């Protein structure tokens, strides 16, 4: 009898969480009166040296708001970041930093949703192809950083 009640409650909770999907924490959630916490507007960094931009993008690819993007973007950065042109790095920078919701980025990359026109570019196509994992690589953890120092030795 107890097990049936737990299963029912569990099924109910699962359906609630699945249907709601991701959302932003509002000040109403914490007892405030305002509707939503405002995030700063993303601004492209002008005159940033390419090596500094690569290092920043590597870090930002690894330190995301959700594990799925940490894995996808860090492995993508390991494979492509060192060969990206400045235009490609700017597209990638905008793609991973302008949207305020990591779930949107994940859904666009995996093809679950169509990306908005402003993000539908060469880098998005490359990310979508990368996420298909046609070589069936194990992508269970972020890459170690030793590969960054192999050329220096």
Q: Largest sheet at a glance?
A: none
* Number of helices, counting only DSSP H or I runs of 4 residues or more: 6
Please provide the ordered H/E string of secondary-structure elements. Answer: HHHHHH
Head-to-tail CA distance between termini:
66 Å
Task: Write down how many β-strands occur, each being a DSSP E stretch of 2 or more residues.
Answer: 0
Tell me the strand percentage band: under 5%
Structure, explained:
The chain contains six helices and no strands. The longest helix is centred in the first third of the chain and has 19 residues, at about 1-20. The chain has helices at about 1-20, 50-60, 65-80, 85-95, 100-110, 120-130. It is an all-alpha fold. The chain is globular, with a radius of gyration of 19 Å. Helix 2 (about 50-60) runs parallel beside helix 4 (about 85-95).
Q: What is the strand and helix layout of this fold?
A:
Layout: H1 2-20, H2 50-62, H3 67-80, H4 86-97, H5 102-110, H6 122-131
Give me some keywords for this one.
mainly alpha, 0% strand
What does this entry show, briefly?
The chain is mainly alpha-helical and 153 residues long.
